[in-house]
Amino acid sequence: MSGLMIAALKYSSLGWPVLPTFSISRSDGEFHCDCHLGKDCPSAGKHPRLIKGVKGATVEESKIRNWWNIWPQANVAVATGDIVCLDVDPRNGGDASLRRLFQKVPTIRTRSHVVASGTGVHLYFKKPDVKWRPSHLLSEQKGIDVRAKGHYCIAAPSLHISGRRYQVVKDRSSDLQPLPRSLWIPAQSKKSRTSDAPMEFNDALLLKILNVELTRSERRIKTAVRGDRNNRLNLECFLWGGRSSHHQLDIKNLVQHRLSAAAKKAGLSKSEIELTFNSGWTAGHSHPTNLAGLPNGNKSL
Ligand SMILES: [Zn+2]
Fold first, then answer.
1. What does pTM read for this prediction?
2. 160, 85: one domain
């Protein structure tokens, strides 16, 4: 039995639903995803092996054994929802944000289950008992993504693209503590939301942010050099798939329309654009990405 299967079974015994994702291989001294995109995969070792994605996550032992018998090296992902994971990415300023949070809310440091990822750190907590959303204090932190319902995080001892394994640094798994109170607020229905809510969903603002970011994506596609145009389109679609998933925004048609037009101007063929959009979007959707300034929510545009 591989260490990965043992870990997956351990998590499931704690009631944490797990799913297998692709892993990391090494060839010519370089690490890359073991999916068919290899070195071009924008979500190396992090995207689900299951067609249903995170919805296929389970605590059923027989299923888990079966998966890791088929893919012994598959990375282990834990579906969040009952668990909340704060994903700290130092490349985006997450380290400084976390230090600030530690100072303001010391229990974040003392009560979390801590996993070192390849470059950053994951802090696990139990979800609040009521419907909730991140407080302003948490959502304003750059470089810290909140993984909750509908998302997942890669767990120890999965292999990271850096060649390092995810590693439990402080084990509170059997006694997971609730998310500190100052990091969340009760979710209110739209009707009863008061005007002093820290994050008001505002259609005009949302559209403005989306428009600015889409224009940037269009520019990057249009100015991509020949030979890199398809790759650039794929990356942008991946990014937007992840944003749509993270913020639960129904923006696929809008994004497809805008990015396809840009790709057409860049000289890509219609069939090529459609294929690339669908593969990039689908891969991105299973890799939620935060877009600074956007609140979470369900929106159709
Ligand atoms: Zn991949």
1. 0.65
2. yes
- CATH code, domain with 60: 3.30.2250
Whole-number Å distance, alpha carbon 130 to ligand 1 midpoint, is 36
- 180, 207: one domain: no
One domain for residues 280 and 132: no
The DSSP output letter for 87 is E
The domain total for the chain is 2
The number of residues in the chain equals 301
Estimate the crossing angle of helix 270-285 against helix 252-265, to 10 degrees: 140
Q: Report the amino acid identity of residue 53.
A: G
> Which residues are 152's β-sheet partners?
79
Residue range(s) defining the domain that contains residue 220: 203-300
- Residue-wise pLDDT tens for the chain (301 aa)? 889 999 999 999 999 999 999 999 998 889 999 999 999 998 999 999 998 899 999 999 999 999 999 999 999 999 999 999 999 999 999 999 999 999 999 999 999 999 999 889 999 999 999 999 999 999 999 999 999 999 999 999 999 999 999 999 999 999 999 999 999 999 875 554 444 433 334 555 667 778 888 999 999 999 988 888 888 999 999 999 888 887 777 788 889 888 999 999 999 998 889 889 988 998 888 887 777 656 555 555 5
Distance CA 101, CA 121 (A): 14
Q: Among 155, 186, 217, where does a domain finish?
A: 186
Q: How far is the CA of 208 from the centre of ligand 1 (A)?
A: 32
Which residues are placed with Cβ below 5 angstroms of ligand 1, an ion? 22, 33, 35, 41
